[in-house]
Amino acid sequence: ATTTTIDEEREREREGGVERRESARIEPWGKQNTMSSLPSLPSTAPVSLATSMDGHCVPGLIEGQEFESVQRSGLFGKLLSVDRESVTSMARSMRSNATYRSAGYSISASSYKDGSGKDRDVGVAPPQQASWVAIAFIMISEVVGAGVLTLSQKYAELGWIIPSIAIIAIFFLVVYTSSMMVEVRKVFPGIVCLSDGADYTYGKWARIAVQTFVILYLVCTLGDYLLLVGKSLGSTAYNVHLCYPIWSLIGAAVLVPIVQLRYLNATTFLCAMNMVSIIVVIALVIAGLATKGRAADVETPLIAEGLDFMQFMQSLSAIFFTFGGQFMFYELMSEMKDFTEFTKTFRIAGPFQVSIYLLVGCVGYYYKGTEASGYFLDNLGFGPAYRVASALLCFHIIVGFVIVGNVLCRILHIQFSPFRANDLSWRGRLEWAAVGFGVTATSFVIANAIPFFDLLTGLIGGLLLPPLCLLAPVVLYIKTRHMVERPLAIWEWVINLSLVAFGVMLMVISTMENVRELISNWSTFGAPFSCHCQGMWDTCECSKARLEYSGGFNCSSIAQ
User: Fold this and answer.
1) For residues 230 and 223, what is the distance between their CA atoms, to the nearest angstrom?
2) Is 194 helix (H, G, I), strand (E, B) or coil?
3) Which residue from 285, 216, 266, 220 is spatially nearest to 468, judged by alpha carbons?
4) Looking at the record's lineage, which domain of life comes first (predicted)?
């Protein structure tokens, strides 16, 4: 057993730069529930207490207990050093004692090394300092973003009732799964990211699977962001008739040097500016709609006519995308003084998030009805308001790209070169530059392969988010309950298995429908890397509806 453990830990060293150390020999801890006579932990791993599912709150070490030092990408891509009980040691000790007691762990911001090997202070804030109120505002700025721009179209596809209920129901589903994630981290306090949770509960292959889904989600989200950067640049200069691939290439060229930033210091300011920019964009579109008024022939049925199950699931995937934040909740918990208060963040984030989503969806649907666009800014005509809104949206998306890109680059850099993740020498900088360029180039390919914002958003929300935001929290919680010998009640099994079935169904059906519509759009609007000037150029060929909506244009008479 000892040989197997050493081999497993050595394999972890090769995969993620893990340092392993074994604690001094002490007497077995046993099944006691006492906090007296606690053995001392290594100085790098201060005691952290949390109440587990079965009420135990007792730290301690057992004979042969091993600690590991790992690097993780934290909030905003912050490089973290985590000292914790190793995954194999935790599993072995839980089996031997048939109960749980909190292990020691510590999380700190990694120091950066310059070319001479000396530490350099880069001004990164230490983790485990934030209150739940601060985390709530970070959550708002991170989650409320590009996805909200599709909601008026979802109302057009579903009607008044279904999307309104879905927005509220998905919010409470997020709260429920988040409480599960908190309970899992109480048992395994060394969890810093979702893949850590999979590692502690199911093992190496589960960790790899979850990490793969996280990387795919981040890559596709960056493609979605770059799509919007190109589209918003072209919309800001709508009288400059460059094809969409050129605008997205210009956007990528702007982003490449920005993603070379290896650490983000002014994150509070960035989040605030990001939040303000998207709110102003939404306000400008709503003001434009209100100024134009509601046409007499606008139709807004309570439930869309001819709605079928496939269309329902496809629309639901886009709504699900707007709540897609659970994959980063463990990173948020790692920033908190007391992560057990994490669910309190929804007292602030929830009302704001749900209100914004309902406002955008309902206002767009009220004024445009079944013709509401899948890109909220398409509800504006050409003019100064459209230019300003497009420019602000471009800024918002660039900031979002930098933040998400930093997270993805950090994950990839740790994965491929863990011992240079904090190296500021020429080689470390060159590796980071290569990762950043590769991420941006991949995003450019995705943005041009699927140049339809609403479809790419729905594809991400249906294919990649259910495994991360629904299936993973549920199955990790179920396994953790089994590991601490607290079996689920029958009603809990019913609820959780229903959620798993719903998640799988959402993945399969919505992806099928999104792919079908994507193929149809390629035939109608052009293949990948075609011009795709729709909605950008102020010409009748590309933007007939917007020109006529702007007033003073009659494309039909011009054609005659």
Assistant:
1) 11
2) helix
3) 216
4) Eukaryota
Which DSSP category does 336 fall into? Answer: B
- Please indicate, yes or no, whether the overall pTM of this predicted structure exceeds 0.70: yes
Q: What are 80's strand-pairing partners?
A: 72, 109
Q: Tell me the residue type at 46.
A: P
pLDDT at 515: 94
**Cβ atoms of 407 and 193 closer than 8 Å:** no
Instruction: Please check whether residue 440 lies inside any domain of the structure.
Output: yes
Residue 130 lies in a domain: no
User: In the 8-state DSSP scheme, what is residue 486?
Assistant: -
Q: What is the pLDDT of residue 113?
A: 67
Any residues with CB less than 8 A from the CB of 141 and at least 6 apart, and which?
A: 271, 272, 274, 275
Q: How many CB atoms lie within 10 A of CB 58?
A: 17
Looking at the fold, whether 94 and 175 belong to one and the same domain comes out as no
User: What local confidence, expressed as pLDDT, does residue 552 receive?
Assistant: 59
111 and 162 in one domain? no
Q: At 84, give phi and psi (nearest 5°).
A: -155, 165
Total number of domains constituting the chain: 2
* Closest residue by Cα to residue 125 from 334, 290, 320: 334
CB proximity list for 220: less than 8 A, separation 6 or greater = 446, 456, 459, 460, 464
Give 380-406 pLDDT, tens digit per residue: 888 899 999 999 999 999 988 988 898
Given this model, what pLDDT does residue 2 score?
40
Alpha-carbon Rg for the chain in angstroms = 25
Residue 190 covered by a domain: yes
In angstroms, rounded to a whole number, what is the distance separating the alpha carbons of residues 286 and 291?
9
The segments of the chain whose pLDDT lies below 70 read 1-65, 91-104, 109-128, 264-267, 548, 550-554, 556-560
Sheet with strand 66-73: strands edge to edge: 19-22, 66-73, 79-85, 105-109
